[in-house]
Fold:
Amino acid sequence: MLRGTMLLVLCLMFCAALLAGAKTIYDFTLNSIDGQAAPLSAYKGKVVMLVNVASRCGFTPQYTALESIYEKYKDRGFVIVGIPANNFGAQEPGTNEEIKTFCSTKYNVKFPMMSKVSVKGDDKTPLYQYLTDKSVNPKTGGDIQWNFTKFLVGPDGQIVARFEPKVTPDSPEVTSAIETALTTAKH
Structure:
């Protein structure tokens, strides 16, 4: 009985280790804001910031800082991926076309934008299931609390930091983490 239990425990630990080590953001594909498949594997070797965004949120002006840091670091292998979500206070009610128009006309956004998804709840997109899974990402996992939560991902596809909405994209804490991650990027 003890031997069988030990074998089961070892098997479970091995399976958990395989699952935890196998996934990166590169295993996921979203749709671009224009509806085209957008595999995150296209960003292999780059430092990526994934941000759940909304057009009618108190944090929406962060688009300005997001675009600014994107412009500052993009030539060094940095990319921001904006991921619209309507999970908090119905603050992203528009269609993908309306979101695209809003971002480009009001904030001159040039970084990649994806189609609207759910980042919380029963219909949470697989990428956000992965990002928020505390068993896979113990330091950065946990439910998304609001719009403009930022995940910084290293060139290997692993999450290196999470910044909550109140932390602005151009804060020293964020820019320092980006610069550190960029030291290992291949662009």
Notes: The longest strand covers residues 47-53.
